[in-house]
Each structure stands twice: as C-alpha cells, then as structure tokens.
C-alpha cells in the first residue's frame, strides 16, 4: 500500500529511513489507542466494535518487520467512571491485538481526571513506563496520537510527539502541535515522519 500521493510503500519508507543522515531514528513507536490505531467508540466495552483505522494493520506489520518495538499508551477513564469494567477493557484490548497484531507493551491509565495520578495523559507517566518496559531511552521514543494530551505527554517525558488530528482534535491543539511537535495527515504519514527521524 502506498502512502497517498507518493507511490512509496510504508515498507519502503521504513527501509529507507535509517539511511537518512544525520538523523536520530526512534528506538520505539508508541501509539494512543482510540482514534489513532482503532476507530473511536466512546467508552468502548464491546470487542465486536473494534475497527482498525485505515492503514493501521499494514503500518504496524511493517514496523514489526523492521524490528521497531511498538506500544500502546492509552487513557481509559471509563473504568474509574464505572462505564467499563476491567474485564471489558481487557477483552477490547485483546481484540485490538487480534486485529492489529501484538504490541510490545501496553500502558493504560484507568484513573479519572480528578484522581491526581501521574500516569493520565498529559502527564508523562505512561510514556516513561512504556520506555522502561521496552528497555529504551525515552528520548528516542515517538508518541503518535490524536489529542494535545498525547503530544504533551511525549514532550514532558522527553519523547517526540506527532499529532494526527481527527474530528475531536481541538484547533488550539493543532496550532500548538505545529509549533512544538509534528502534525501528520494520517497514521501512515505519522509513521513516515517518525521513521525519518530527527537531527541527532
């Protein structure tokens, strides 16, 4: 599958990116779950409703083939609100892996907005935990998500953030990301940008 308007496959991009210099290629790619790798369903409790976003299956397959660790970093406050049970959350996440393949780490915050935890994005806790679980330097991680909280969590942790705006992304979040991070049109473009690296 080619990235729109380029004629270049994701696999070709992943193969070519490490040859570009001078850049610092990522040690791991971290993804928000809802509206980043699967279509957002508010407080998703039914595994049957899990649907990958366009390009997610091939993109993740290409990253794994290239030996790039991948992880999920996700806020799931529905558990704290009593809208999702832990068992339902586990079942949904298992279905995500059935459709998209295995992730090397899952870091999920089940706390609410007022719980004062250190893991709920935009706090950096989940990003730090993901890097530690993968045994990589957090400064060489890239976090891809659809909200300003994803980008802020990455930035505060010392990682790179890439925003993929959706219908729920606020204009101010896009504006801030254009100044302080990277904005991509879709998941494939975001991964291409991540694998192109940054100046070392």
From TrEMBL:
<feature type="binding site">
    <location>
        <position position="34"/>
    </location>
    <ligand>
        <name>Mg(2+)</name>
    </ligand>
</feature>
<dbReference type="InterPro" id="IPR036412">
    <property type="entry name" value="HAD-like_sf"/>
</dbReference>
<keyword id="KW-0460">Magnesium</keyword>
<keyword id="KW-0862">Zinc</keyword>
<feature type="site" description="Stabilizes the phosphoryl group">
    <location>
        <position position="121"/>
    </location>
</feature>
<feature type="active site" description="Proton donor">
    <location>
        <position position="34"/>
    </location>
</feature>
<dbReference type="InterPro" id="IPR023214">
    <property type="entry name" value="HAD_sf"/>
</dbReference>
<feature type="site" description="Contributes to substrate recognition">
    <location>
        <position position="120"/>
    </location>
</feature>
<keyword id="KW-0479">Metal-binding</keyword>
<feature type="binding site">
    <location>
        <position position="117"/>
    </location>
    <ligand>
        <name>Zn(2+)</name>
    </ligand>
</feature>
<feature type="binding site">
    <location>
        <position position="111"/>
    </location>
    <ligand>
        <name>Zn(2+)</name>
    </ligand>
</feature>
<feature type="binding site">
    <location>
        <position position="146"/>
    </location>
    <ligand>
        <name>Mg(2+)</name>
    </ligand>
</feature>
<dbReference type="GO" id="GO:0005975">
    <property type="term" value="P:carbohydrate metabolic process"/>
</dbReference>
<feature type="binding site">
    <location>
        <position position="109"/>
    </location>
    <ligand>
        <name>Zn(2+)</name>
    </ligand>
</feature>
<keyword id="KW-0378">Hydrolase</keyword>
<feature type="binding site">
    <location>
        <position position="32"/>
    </location>
    <ligand>
        <name>Mg(2+)</name>
    </ligand>
</feature>
<feature type="active site" description="Nucleophile">
    <location>
        <position position="32"/>
    </location>
</feature>
<dbReference type="InterPro" id="IPR006439">
    <property type="entry name" value="HAD-SF_hydro_IA"/>
</dbReference>
<feature type="site" description="Stabilizes the phosphoryl group">
    <location>
        <position position="74"/>
    </location>
</feature>
<keyword id="KW-0119">Carbohydrate metabolism</keyword>
<dbReference type="GO" id="GO:0005737">
    <property type="term" value="C:cytoplasm"/>
</dbReference>
<protein>
    <recommendedName>
        <fullName>D,D-heptose 1,7-bisphosphate phosphatase</fullName>
        <ecNumber>3.1.3.-</ecNumber>
    </recommendedName>
</protein>
<dbReference type="InterPro" id="IPR006549">
    <property type="entry name" value="HAD-SF_hydro_IIIA"/>
</dbReference>
<dbReference type="InterPro" id="IPR004446">
    <property type="entry name" value="Heptose_bisP_phosphatase"/>
</dbReference>
<keyword id="KW-0963">Cytoplasm</keyword>
<feature type="binding site">
    <location>
        <position position="119"/>
    </location>
    <ligand>
        <name>Zn(2+)</name>
    </ligand>
</feature>
<dbReference type="GO" id="GO:0046872">
    <property type="term" value="F:metal ion binding"/>
</dbReference>
<dbReference type="Pfam" id="PF13242">
    <property type="entry name" value="Hydrolase_like"/>
</dbReference>
<dbReference type="InterPro" id="IPR006543">
    <property type="entry name" value="Histidinol-phos"/>
</dbReference>
<dbReference type="GO" id="GO:0016791">
    <property type="term" value="F:phosphatase activity"/>
</dbReference>
<comment type="similarity">
    <text>Belongs to the gmhB family.</text>
</comment>
């Amino acid at each position: 599958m080619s990235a729109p308007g380029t004629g270049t496959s994701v696999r070709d991009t992943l193969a070519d990116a490490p040859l570009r210099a001078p850049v610092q290629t990522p040690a791991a790619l971290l993804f928000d779950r809802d509206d980043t790798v699967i279509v957002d369903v508010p407080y998703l409790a039914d595994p049957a409703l899990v649907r990958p976003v366009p390009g997610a299956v091939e993109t993740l397959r290409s990253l794994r083939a290239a030996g790039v660790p991948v992880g999920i970093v996700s806020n799931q406050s529905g558990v704290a609100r009593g809208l999702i049970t832990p068992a339902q959350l586990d079942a949904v996440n298992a279905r995500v892996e059935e459709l998209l393949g295995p992730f090397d780490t899952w870091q999920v915050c089940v706390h609410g907005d007022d719980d004062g935890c250190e893991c709920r994005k935009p706090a950096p806790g989940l990003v730090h935990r993901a890097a530690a679980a993968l045994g990589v330097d957090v400064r060489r991680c890239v976090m891809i998500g659809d909200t300003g909280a994803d980008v802020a969590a990455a930035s505060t942790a010392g990682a790179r953030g890439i925003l993929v705006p959706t219908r729920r992304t606020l204009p101010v979040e896009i504006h801030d990301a254009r100044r302080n991070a990277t904005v991509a049109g879709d998941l494939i473009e975001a991964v291409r940008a991540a694998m192109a690296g940054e100046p070392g």
